[in-house]
Description:
By secondary structure, the chain is of the alpha+beta class. It has a single domain, classed as paralog of FGE (formylglycine-generating enzyme). It has four helices and twelve strands; from the N terminus they run αββββββαααββββββ. The protein has helices at residues 2-15, 91-99, 124-133, 141-149, and strands spanning 28-30, 36-38, 52-55, 58-62, 75-79, 82-85, 204-210, 228-229, 247-250, 266-269, 279-280, 284-286. It has a four-stranded mixed sheet with strand order 10-9-7-11. A three-stranded antiparallel sheet has the order 3-6-12. Strands 4-5-8 form a three-stranded mixed sheet. The two termini are 18 Å apart. The relative contact order is 0.20.
Amino acid sequence: MARSRSRQAREVGRQCAGVMWLVAACAVLPARGGAEFQAAPCPAEAEWPQGMACVTGGSFTLGDARGRPDEKDPGLAHVSTFYMDRTEVTNAAYAGCIAAGRCKTPVHFRKFDGPKQPVVAVSWYDAVAFCELQGKRLPTEAEWERAASGPEHTRYPWGDEPLGCERAQVKDARGEGCGSGRTRDVASFPAGHWGLFDMAGNVHEWVQDRYSGCLRGCADECGDACFGQDPKGPCGGATPCKDHGLRSVRGGSWFWPLERARTTARRGSGAPNLGPHRFGFRCARDLLPGAKEQNP
């Protein structure tokens, strides 16, 4: 069933090719029980918040039956249309949050401190604080996967081909960071789905959700909390949450090979993040009030 729905999603995406984020038809996909979930269309691009892109919502198969244990078992999620930052938050942008007294200064790493490089070594808490200061929030895990995989639900943010360092800052035969041992300035590679940059590689990105060891079928599964209408993961992301002490990160990083940067790849980490220089983030925002979805 999951594979059948995935094929349907891909077919709708192909029909929408070339007009990816502006055609409302791209948002209409089969939903549970044969009903339809129709997400609100994106407004005209001139109305989008500065530095953000509109991600057309819809129904898609979250997870991958062929993936790692924490990507199984996949199921159907319905995500409302939303905005997401085009790039990961940079050191220059994050400095404003430090100056405002809302974010802590992260551990300094030489070669990672350029103004246009993504900020690293930030905690989940500081990522939340930064987004709130901007009138935004962290994306949910389902939103992030929708944004990365696009209307065709592809394996990578650019398609199904494993292009590696042609399209992402990841580890390859030369070493971490395509042999450089570092991140690159944001938007150094062509944009992927919806006009978003670096959804694979560069830095692992914090999302709102708590991490689960699998989607379904294990002791600490996410279960129904990861599927259905605008899922928010275990305990709705709230604190405390028994058996789900970690937060989720997505997208892979300069430190890991391309396999970890697949659009369905998941990982959990402790929210304080006391030092590792592989974690960054980007923010999301709800669509403006008045845009409504038709729920299944």
